[in-house]
Amino acid sequence: MAASNKEIEAAHSLLKKTWNSKPVNVDRCYELLNKLKVALASTSFFPTSNESVDKTHSYMIRDILEIGVQISVLKDDTSSFERYMAQLKCYYFDFKDVLPPSSYEYQLLGLNLLYLLAQNKVADFHTELELLPPIEIIKNIYISHPVSLEQWLMEGSYNKVFLAKDNVPAESYTYFINKLLHTIRKEIAACMEKAYERISIDEATRILFLTSSKELKDFIVKEKLQWSSEGNFLKFSSKANVTEHVNRIPAEKLAERAIETGGLRKLRKAKGNAVAFGSERSKTHVLLHPLVAQNEETRKLVTDIINVLIALESTEKLDKKLLENNEIKKHLTPRYPRDVILVFGGRALELEFVNPEAVVEAYDHRLERWKNVNISDPCGPRDHHQVVVHEDNVYIIGGHQGPFNVFNSCRKFNLKTKIWSEISPMIEKRAFMAAVGTMKYVYAIGGYNGSWRVKTVERYDTVLNQWSLVENMHERRSGAGAAVLDNKIYVVGGFRDLNYLNSAECYSPESNQWTLISAMSKPRSSPSVVAYQNQIYAIGGLCCNGLMASAERFDTELGKWFPIEDEMKEKKCGAAAIVLDAKIFVIGGWNGVGGLRTVEIWSNKTRKWVLGSRLLKRRTGCAACVACKVPNIEEFTFNERESVVEDVLVKRMNGVHFNSQEDTDSGQTSTIHGANIDRNVLSAVGGINNNQQMAHNLDEWLDVD
Question: Which entry of 8, 89, 416, 671 is 20 to 30 Å from 691 by CA?
């Protein structure tokens, strides 16, 4: 017997009341829902066209279907979920002009997108996405959440997917996210087997995004993986075949851009695509990426390269057949950089009769090598000057050639044309000054004019080719350091009237005013100063107690200085400093005896100073800058890049191994079995492996003076 309208309406009211009660009795709701479905089957409540829509009945049916979708999730019933959503979409799309919008519409449409993603139905995911208004895709959290997940999956950024579990827009999303994460873990497990013969338990736990070794053990048992433990390591069975029961994370199309994970170096791929490559985790994740996973030939190539990288990081002797594999050598070769460090001037000794160094050096941070570039200023070199980059020009500001020949002249080098030219001279002669660039201006700050130290500041208009004075600093300073942060100029330390300064001040171009800020914990003359990750760093310098290796940072929000926990390998002052690739480079300097070739590198990731590749020339009082997006980059870098890798492989195949030992400019030169090893060649491999500590350690104990 068919149910009456009143009976159906009463059953709907009871279902809704039970569903909205707290806590929800899911089994009771499921029972009521099934009875209501049977009753509805004998009615004409379901419309067949827009003309036949009864608003009251259709509103009630939509409400029942929305409850059904959510109950199916709680009951782990994906088949019912699919059926309810298929029916519900008719009310959302076909009858949208008849029915008022539902408050659950985008929540459940987003849940359906997440379901399609978890079920590996990426084509259907994009089909459903095209039905939605663009503004909702961007701004509606229920839709943008699964869209972001899909994007991260295509990028191979699985860490972001796992973090998203704790930031779901609705509780129901957790169900399908867990299914998605489990699929990813199984795929990672399959790739671990292909990438390694064994791996530490701690590393396997981290790579699989688990929190403990117990979770790892439970995962192995649940998935019936043929893994065995050997002490603190997991060993993979060569016969194991996890992939036959794994749902892959596919890509509807190949990624069109390089995928960055943690700033790692990249593996070049045919057709101009790229995948992040380097650390233990990315070695596994690169095998998961669609660029690799969808092509068996590429997957084999990447697996071979992973094995080579593992061998390079070990002490094993490499197979000589590796040299015959041009494909692997090509992919081990670092790319050309986009940006380079340029170092100008400085001198080997702080003596009047020693001329400044004319050679200009460029640093290729992909190969970790310095190169002599033929762009020396025809008017001669300088020392204790400054350089500032603006657009395609490098500006050389002031400096001197001996204490009695202080310059107010300035030069300009165009990176495109490779032409030097004179620009307007400063109003005042300056050496040992600070200089920075903001917008279209170059600022020259303080310094020594050949007679006394000054507190004047002037700025150069790069458009008008004109210098003009701005407000004076509070103190006269030479040997100060300066950096720009949030369009304000910070000047710290220096020397005045036989006093080493710890004072610091800040200049606002908008108000043309200097403001004193908190003093450093220690006086520092000729420190290296940079803006790095939203703070001002003052590194090294000279004080009344001598040279310094310590550093401190200024937090502009807190208005306080904080010490850096690690000290540089060598005490120094008068070094140049720049920021590149999220690292601080302190270049050259004076160690109390003469100019240095050493380069020290700081990263907030490692929070340690490491030695980088040495300069070709010893330099104190040099100036450095980062030239970005350099045209004709080949002129500033090494062209025979594959031969660098081949040289490294040959040395490793000959059984040459290295043990790190401390080596500064004042230390001993090290040799291995009497062999003269090219340190830069070896550090190139460190870069390829993204093992920065390895790269810089190699440079610590190999000196090729």
Answer: 671
